[in-house]
């Protein structure tokens, strides 16, 4: 049966993959080093099913309220994408996120580390964790979460020692009001510091629809792309 939305997603996905390949070539990197995480927030379950069918293995959402029912259903259908949680996370949602997320990219403070560790252990799970860094300088951009750069190493140590959690690297969103290249250069330097202390923390999640090329040039291993694949849409509920 014809499914125009599937064709649309297939084409948009191909063009995002071509952008990733081009950015890797320009940076002298192997495209196999960069994982595409499709951010499906505001889009319905049918789009998630289509993306999985089209070969997308990594999916992400930024709100527990929306992500929990979607991924509970997806997993009940026997689909097994790697699920990334990428949004601001309240401590009281840590237990819920632990049930469906494989990677939590947005860990930015000690109490959240403790809550995730406790729930991961209780659920018998090992969560992959990225420390989200706040790259906003001054008041140029509303701060959208993330640890301040001078507290990063302390936070990374805490995650590395927490049972149930594996420190895998860092994540950031480029702030508005500054070229992404400048922000991602700071991010690369901060990430190198974490890696020096924790050699297994090899992931750098940076780059979205508008700035994935700059992120790949700065060493991103994961790009989080929503709009360029799925289009823009009003909040799902
Ligand atoms: C929505 C979102 C993305 C994807 O952004 P697009 O501009 O739609 O590609 C990436 N990261 C986070 C944390 C998000 O909330």
Note down, in words, how this protein is organized.
With 237 residues, the protein is α/β, with parallel strands linked by helices. It has helices at 4-27, 45-53, 64-76, 94-100, 110-122, 152-161, 180-197, 212-217, 227-230, and strands at 35-39, 58-61, 82-85, 103-107, 127-132, 165-171, 203-205, 222-225. An eight-stranded parallel beta sheet has the order 7-6-5-4-3-2-1-8. Helix 3 (64-76) runs parallel beside helix 4 (94-100), helix 4 crosses helix 5 (110-122) and helix 6 crosses helix 7. It is globular. The protein starts with a helix and ends in a 7-residue tail after the last helix. The mean pLDDT is 96. The structure holds pyridoxal-5'-phosphate (PLP). Pyridoxal-5'-phosphate is lined by residues 39, 41, 62, 86-87, 173, 208-210, 224-228. Pyridoxal-5'-phosphate binds at residues 39, 41, 62, 86-87, 173, 208-210, 224-228.
Notable features of this structure?
single chain; 237 residues; alpha/beta; eight-stranded parallel β-sheet; 9 helices; binds pyridoxal-5'-phosphate
What share of the residues does DSSP label as strand, in percent? Answer: 15-25%
Oligomer: single chain
- Which regions have little confidence, pLDDT < 50, spanning 5+ residues? none
Question: Largest sheet, order of strands side by side?
Answer: 7-6-5-4-3-2-1-8
Radius of gyration based on Cα positions? 17 Å
The tally of beta strands, per DSSP, is 8
Percent helix among the residues?
40-55%
* H/E element order: HEHEHEHEHEHEHEHEH
Decide which structural class fits the backbone. Answer: alpha/beta
Largest sheet: 8 strands, parallel
Number of helices: 9
Average pLDDT confidence is 96
The CA-CA distance between the termini, in Å, is 28 Å
Shape label? globular
The set of bound ligands, ions and cofactors reads: pyridoxal-5'-phosphate
């Amino acid at each position: 049966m014809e499914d125009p939305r599937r064709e649309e997603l297939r084409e948009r996905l191909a063009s995002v993959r071509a952008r990733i390949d081009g950015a890797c070539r320009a940076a002298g990197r192997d495209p196999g080093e960069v994982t595409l995480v499709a951010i499906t927030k505001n889009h319905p379950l049918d789009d998630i099913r289509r993306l999985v069918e089209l070969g997308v293995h990594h999916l992400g959402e930024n709100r527990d309220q929306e992500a929990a029912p979607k991924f509970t259903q997806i997993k009940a259908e026997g689909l097994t994408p790697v699920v990334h949680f990428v949004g601001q996370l309240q401590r009281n949602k840590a237990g819920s996120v632990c049930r469906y997320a494989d990677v939590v990219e947005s860990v930015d403070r000690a109490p959240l580390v403790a809550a995730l560790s406790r729930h991961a252990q209780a659920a018998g799970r090992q969560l992959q964790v990225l420390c989200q860094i706040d790259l906003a300088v001054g008041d140029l951009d509303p701060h959208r979460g993330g640890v301040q750069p001078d507290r990063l190493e302390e936070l990374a140590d805490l995650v590395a020692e927490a049972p149930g959690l594996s420190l895998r690297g860092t994540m950031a969103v480029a702030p508005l009001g500054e070229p992404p290249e400048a922000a991602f250069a700071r991010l690369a330097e901060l990430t190198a510091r974490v890696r020096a202390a924790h050699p297994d923390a090899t992931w750098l999640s940076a780059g979205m629809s508008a700035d994935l090329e700059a992120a790949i040039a700065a060493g991103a291993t994961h790009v989080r792309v929503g709009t360029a694949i799925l289009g823009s849409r009003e909040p799902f509920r």
